[in-house]
Design brief:
Layout: E1 2-8, H1 14-23, E2 28-30, H2 31-38, H3 42-52, H4 65-74, H5 76-103, E3 108-112, E4 127-132, H6 135-142, H7 148-156, H8 161-167, E5 170-173, H9 178-195
Parallel strand pairs: 1-3, 1-4, 2-3, 4-5
């Protein structure tokens, strides 16, 4: 089974590319979706409250994600502490999902993993694709959901886009139309399948 890593900076369009792969019948595993599930688990909530304080849980005992995000994107040491709690569990669940697809006889699977290089996960993948988008486009795309400061904090917490591009096997330019992006995805997938 060919394992394709899909990465990019915050707001670059990874989810859009994932949807294109899904339409091409390529299974996609989202590490963000894995994190969402983990943040609902009792043990993870307990560890987060123990590490950061009960004030990071809301009145229902759920993680106050906005408050926690402000903390971890403002202070690198706090972000490292959160990653130490979350990342081992993410990779455990990712491994289980990959095994499931392997057993089903899938030819290829895409893993949408924003922090692919930051977590030094390159060895997991046969090919790595970075989705690139101009910063002005990203800010415009996200302005309804995040303040300019929140966008900047999240982008600064990740490896710079230029470095991700240098470390990748393929780059998808997300500054054009959806049709142009579909064409790029199809061409890259054909090349990956041919090489592997």
């Amino acid at each position: 089974m060919i394992c394709i890593g899909l990465t990019g900076i915050f707001g670059s369009g990874k989810s859009t590319v994932s949807r294109i792969f899904k339409k091409m019948n390529i299974p996609v595993i989202s590490c963000d979706a894995i994190v969402d599930k983990l943040l609902k688990k009792k043990e993870i909530k307990r560890q987060i409250a123990h590490t950061f304080g009960d004030e990071y849980l809301d009145k229902n005992g759920e993680i106050d994600r906005k408050k926690l995000a402000m903390l971890v994107f403002s202070f690198p040491r706090q972000r490292e502490s959160l990653n130490e709690i979350i990342h081992p569990q993410v990779f455990k669940m990712l491994g289980e999902k990959l095994d499931m697809h392997r057993k089903k006889g899938k030819m290829a699977v895409v893993v949408e993993i924003p922090l692919l290089f930051e977590t030094r996960s390159e060895k997991l993948f046969d090919a790595i694709i970075t989705v690139a988008s101009p910063l002005s486009v990203i800010k415009e795309r996200l302005k309804e959901k995040y303040s300019p400061e929140e966008i900047d904090m999240r982008i600064k917490s990740q490896m710079p886009l230029a470095k991700k591009i240098r470390l990748s096997d393929y780059v998808i330019d997300n500054s054009g139309t959806i049709t142009q992006m579909q064409f790029q995805v199809k061409k890259i997938l054909q090349d990956i399948m041919r090489r592997n």
